[in-house]
Amino acid sequence: MKILAIESSCDETAAAVVENGRKVLSSIVASQVEEHRLYGGVVPEIASRRHAEAITPVVRRALSEAGVTLSGIGAIAVTYAPGLIGALLVGVNFAKGLSLSSGIPLVPTHHLRSHIASNYISNQELKPPFLCLVVSGGHSHIVMVEDYTKMKIIGQTRDDAAGEAFDKAARTMGMPYPGGIELDKVAESGNPKAFKLPRPVVHDAPYDFSFSGLKTAVINLIHNASQKGEELNKADVCASFRYAVVDCLTTNFLKAARDLNVSQLVIAGGVSANSLLRGTLADECKKRGYSFYMPDKGLCGDNAAMVGAQGYYEYLSGNTANSDLNAYATMSIEK
Questions:
Q1: At the N or C end, where does the chain have fewer CB atoms within 10 A?
Q2: How many angstroms separate the Cα of 265 from the Cα of each of 126, 141, 272, 306?
């Protein structure tokens, strides 16, 4: 079964054709990064306008590169939550119109579930149940994936997401948007133990995260040095901060795996491209005898192939919508 998938939750307009939830026939992404870089972050109004301009040619190209027409499509999957509401509405309304005019079933697909599903493309043998660490610019969750469409939140951030903390720390150091990627590169040449940074703990919820205090600590470190006229080694600051964030993520994730007696671990989301996170978890899982899976780096960021992968399983579970489908800025992955 071929799924036409559409993604427009933030600043990438994407479309893909995915077969049986695992095989990508085409994947097109129109990025707005260069434009938003001028403002140091995503401007929602600009994002919505660019989605409206790009979505038709992106979908046409996805169908063309897959070598199919709408008559060969079994369902249309679209990201409807969570994300920037204006951006989501562009994709949802386009998909609704296409479904209505063609008679092809419409499948509402959750953005974070789609990130998890990127692993089904990269790891053909992966099947639930497994424990997944979902880390991105707006989300940090530990999720028990009991089945393809049945998920339970085990832990989550109480404030900032890991990706948000990376981006804000990078911005303070004068790095261009998206800063987290640049910070990861600079950190490679630094000393991760050069600066002692806190490891915030949520005492009443051992699997939850808190990155606000850690983000503030590194920002204060940079500002204090600037006020004193001192020059910090940027690579050492980046390496120390990255090490602290990854330490928080891996500690709670591995603790949850141990307590829940789960031996199949997965990571997903934009921050799953972080080199230290990937390497650390691969090493720790090997020590413990766990199976560890991660998406190809090209599938870590927002794309429509992952939407097509999850959309396939949503369709099989009977999750379809009609023309009254709406978009939602927030929604739990459990729904």
A1: C
A2: 10, 13, 13, 18
Contacts of residue 240, Cβ cutoff 8 Å, sequence gap at least 6: 190, 191, 192, 193, 194, 195, 196, 197, 218
Angle at 174 between CA 173 and CA 180, to 5 degrees: 70
Q: Which pLDDT band holds residue 203 (cuts at 50, 70, 90)? A: confident
Kindly provide the residue ranges of all beta strands, DSSP E only, lying in the chain, ordered along the sequence: 2-7, 12-19, 23-31, 75-81, 106-110, 130-135, 140-147, 150-156, 264-268, 291-293
How far apart (Å, rounded) are the C-alpha atoms in residues 298 and 253?
A: 23
Give Dmax (Cα) for the chain: 67
| DSSP structural state of residue 81 | E
Least confident stretch, 154-163, 174-183, 271-280: 174-183
pLDDT of residue 259: 98
For residue 129, say if its preceding peptide bond is cis, omega within 30 degrees of 0: yes
